[in-house]
Amino acid sequence: MRDLENDSRFFLHELDVVSDDSKKNCVANVIEKFGRIDILVNNAEVQCVGPLAELPWSAMEQTFNTNVLGAPRMIQAVVPHMAARKKGKIVNTGSISVAMPTPWAAVYGASKATILSLTDTLRLELRHFGIHVTVVAPGAIKSNIANSAVANCSTAEWNLYEPFEDIIKERAYLSQTPKSTPADVFARDTLAVLLKNNPPAWFTTGQFSTIMAIIYHMPNWFKDFVARRIMKG
Fold first, then answer.
1. Is the dihedral of CA 186, 89, 94, 98 positive or negative?
2. Active site residue 108
3. What is the pLDDT along the chain (233 residues), one digit of tens a residue?
4. Catalytic residue among 108, 161, 173, 216, which?
């Protein structure tokens, strides 16, 4: 972050996607400084790990408010500007994990599945205005999301699922392995796709992305079998 602050090519601005005031302030300042918005990347997200039957309601609300509603907030803020120019690109970040839902990640998976559906509809609605809409479904990308997920759920008390407490925490780090794709590599690959004149409606990249895309087309009994094996380590 400090490197970006000292780089004249970047204009850093604080943005809270769950705040209407923060959204309006950010978009207004960007347009004032640069005169236009070419690309919107909806990448804000939080992880939520735990058994659905016992997850704190506040954790579920935070996940959906950030992962799902954050994107439409930003979309509604920039679309009038893009539509007036008949030009623009919107990128929504999903997750390849929706190809095979696993235990302890129901809320996160549901939020990303919603993003996929939302993007498919938005792509059709905005085509008339010359706005391209793309969804990127990352595989395992190195980030701090697992540490944040464990911290957010550290106060949760599992009753029915107390014997699974260690396994639940392990699920948070499923995407964080020594072979996970570095964030800068993911960013470079994503940018290369987005800068095309006609970006694809969907693309995926990162560790596990190919195998997960294949598993998506498998029958449910096979997906359940694989998920159980993964959870047992």
1. negative
2. yes
3. 556 566 667 788 889 999 999 999 999 999 999 999 999 999 998 888 889 999 989 889 999 999 999 999 999 999 999 999 999 999 999 988 888 778 888 999 999 999 999 999 999 999 999 999 999 988 888 888 777 777 666 556 788 988 888 888 887 787 777 888 888 898 898 889 889 888 999 888 877 777 777 777 788 888 888 777 766 65
4. 108
Which residue intervals of 41-105 are DSSP H helices?
57-67, 70-85
DSSP letters spanning 98-132: GGS--TT-HHHHHHHHHHHHHHHHHHHHHGGGTEE
Sequence spans of domains, the chain = 37-231
Does domain 37-231 sit in CATH 3.40.50.720?
yes
- DSSP for residue 92: E
The owner of tokens 């190809």 is 99
Q: What are phi and psi of 29, to 5 degrees?
A: -70, -35
- State the CB neighbour count (10 A cutoff) for residue 136: 26
Tell me how far apart the alpha carbons of residues 126 and 105 are, in angstroms, rounded to a whole number: 31
Helices and strands (DSSP H and E) totals, the chain:
10, 4
Q: Contact, 133 vs 201, CB < 8 A? A: yes
Q: Distance between CA 21 and CA 208 in Å, rounded?
A: 38
Residue 170: both structure tokens together: 């392990």
